[in-house]
What we know:
Blueprint: H1 3-22, H2 28-34, H3 86-99, E1 102-106, H4 109-120, E2 124-127, H5 132-145, E3 148-150, E4 163-167, H6 179-189, E5 192-196, E6 214-218, E7 232-236, H7 238-242, H8 245-256, H9 262-272, H10 275-297, H11 303-307, E8 308-312, H12 318-323, H13 325-329, E9 337-342, H14 345-350, E10 359-360, E11 370-373, E12 385-389, H15 395-410
Helix pairs in contact: 2-3, 3-9, 4-5, 4-8
Amino acid sequence: MTSxxxxxxxxxxxxxxxxxxxxxxxxxxxxxxxxxxxxxxxRAIAPAIHVAVNYRYARDPDQLVPGENKDPDTLExxxxxxxxxxxxxxxxxxxxxxxHGGIMTYSTGLAAFHAIMVLLNPKRVFIGDGYHGVHGNIDxxxxxxxxxxxxxxxxxxxxxxDIVHIETPLNPTxxxxxxxxxxxxxRAAGAFLTVDATFAPPPLQYPLQFGADIVLHSGTKYIxxxxxxxxxxxxxxxxxxxxxxxxxxxxxxxxxxNVMGNLEGWLGLRSLRTLELxxxxxxxxxxSLVRWIDEEIQNPCSVVGxxxxxxxxxxxxxxxxxxxxxxxxxxxxxxxxFAIWLKTPxxxxxxxxxxxxxxxxxxxxxxxSLIEWRAMSDSKCDTKLLRISCGxxxxxxxxxxxxxxxQALCE
Length: 411
């Protein structure tokens, strides 16, 4: 290394150390933009797109260290993108700062859940309603390991090494579940609490604060947020990180091959910059629409009341809000997804085609508002149910779009 390189490295290290000291004092929106300022070999503001699969080793044989390949300018080590890569490394740096735990990223949310099953290798998983893909993954693991799937109503049978898996807010209704309650049950039995928090990422809730051992996010949804990437994320409690869980997850990912792609890492990093801004706006839009629809349902003479039978969302869990746990758990907002049931299956099937702003598509968390006749992607779902994922459009425009859609159904 030349003297100039050493000088540059020294000044770079000092600047990075200064940032590391001040970063915890900053709010989420600021940290999302600056947490990775010095995880780069250049001065460009926007991150570069690294698509390389492999990396050249040092020419000097005396510098060769098996398993390492440190760059003399950045001290970052990259060998093969199935191990680590610049885009995903930078992405994980910001995630760790925002989510307050150890981070592992994967190709999809289901790949991340599968990693949990491999890590903990439970004999039993206690699980309620939620994403059908997670249930399908457990069913697949039953064939391989004999793991038993039990409902949450049988938690009295919970034992050491079992998993309690809670999805909150719940798919497809957006209703919340009390994590402190399930954490206490898991701890008393020596079991683990895993939480799928896809429907409410930071700043809406932080499940690690309420006893979760591992938090799962389908990064395809709010973390990505732009309908253009797939990703899975595990957030591991710091105590479990000290127990070696991240190292075990990393070793398993090496051989399972479910690493996220280079471009997805870059897209995820781009999206994290606006995560707080997007999620807050989306949650506010949902609460506004839910409040309006719920009020209209009470009036059978209104066009909404003639079409909509019922609605569910965390903000409507009045007893839980009054009890206090829900407001503590979701201090940042009640989530951008809710579900409505129309009077008939035919109405539910036709309603999305009447809308102009809401896009009829699966998934959620996008900047565009989405609506899905849920029977399209979940064969077990009630055919009268519509899942609504609010985007960042104007709340008034979203309300007017829904209203004209309801009116069109009545014509």
